[in-house]
Design brief:
13 strands; globular; 2 domains; 37% helix; 9 helices; 330 residues
Length: 330
């Protein structure tokens, strides 16, 4: 079922197409997991995907993306490894390092032969297929003033990129003038200074880290706890096991508070879309393989029966356990 939003729509848990999205994303997540293990790169499911792993042992039924994070020191190495090993006919590694015309400071693994166009992004020229978000995690200063300065530094370098690449306009004329002036620089140079703005704050042993930009207006509720993420464990997700922060309970409480409480029914939807398409001929083998794993076996958890996480210590996999998925080795 489509949920309408003015001139767009979003997929809900009752729409069978969201299972197809999940099937393709699960295939992409397995590829990322195998590449990370081969390259000895630690990663972790984050945000709604981590919440889904704990509360649903898979996708949140109405969620339509995957969020995972890597430490900044491993970010470029992961993107280069993915770029070398993915099947180019099926997937694309999308990041400002490869495509300066993009407008986000993190990477996406995109599925080709699909369309997943967010409302307002219709005129953007890059591939807008089904995706997995890959966030580099940056250090955060310990004190409130430093945190505010880090945000201001990031905004000063990030919004000129949005002005240049997607026509963003600030409500404040003085800021818009400043952004337009800075947007005259070469796109690659803009991204270089933006990345520098993210990395010059905080210390390597800072207690907090963050994936910029936050989807929340209050950045204080977006910070990640370094001690909860220093080690990883593997939790079940749609019948497979993937890396999560060892301190997943504390991390989820930091992000969501009572994370077992479900949102109101009218908030159970994904991105607002203007276009959606899957080439079923191309993706048929993946859909046949993964649809059985992503379709929920029972009704989604309710607020009444979700007082405890769906996972327990007995669900933890050994650190080396992984499914072996076929990726190209050249």
């Amino acid at each position: 079922m489509k949920k309408q939003h003015s001139s767009g729509f979003s997929l809900t848990a009752n729409d069978p197409r969201i299972h197809e999205v999940h099937a393709i994303q699960l295939a992409m997540l397995k590829i990322i997991d195998q590449v990370c293990q081969a390259e000895h790169i630690p990663y972790f499911l984050l945000f709604g995907t981590l919440l889904g792993a704990v509360r649903h042992q898979g996708f949140i039924p109405w969620d339509d993306d995957i969020d995972l994070g890597v430490w900044r020191r491993d970010y470029d190495r992961l993107l280069n490894a993915l770029q070398a090993k993915i099947q180019k006919e099926a997937f694309e590694v999308q990041s400002a390092e490869f495509e300066p015309q993009l407008s986000v400071p993190y990477a996406k693994l995109r599925a080709k032969h699909t369309r997943f166009v967010e409302l307002g992004h219709e005129n953007l020229s890059f591939n807008q297929g089904i995706f997995v978000d890959i966030f580099p995690l940056d250090n955060v200063p310990e004190h409130k003033l430093g945190q505010k300065l880090q945000q201001a530094d990031f905004f000063l370098h990030y919004f000129p990129i949005r002005v240049k690449n997607e026509g963003y306009r600030s409500e404040h004329k003085c800021l818009q003038h400043l952004y337009e002036h800075r947007a005259q620089k070469n796109p690659a140079a803009l991204w270089q200074t933006c990345r520098q703005s993210l990395q010059r704050w905080g210390k390597p042993d800072s207690k907090l880290c963050i994936a910029y930009p936050s989807a929340r207006a209050d950045y204080a509720t977006s910070y990640l706890l370094r001690h909860a993420m220093q080690a990883t464990v593997r939790l079940p997700f749609c019948g497979s096991y993937f890396e999560v922060p060892a301190g997943w309970d504390e991390q989820l409480r930091q992000l969501f508070g009572n994370y077992q409480h479900l949102p109101a029914p009218d908030q159970r939807h994904g991105h607002h879309l203007s276009e959606f398409y899957i080439d079923h001929d191309f993706w048929a083998p993946v859909l046949e393989t993964y649809l059985p794993a992503v379709k929920p076996a029972a009704a989604p958890l309710s607020a009444e029966n979700s007082s405890k996480p769906a996972v327990s210590q007995t669900d933890l996999a050994a650190p080396g356990q992984a499914d072996q998925e076929a990726v190209r080795h050249d």
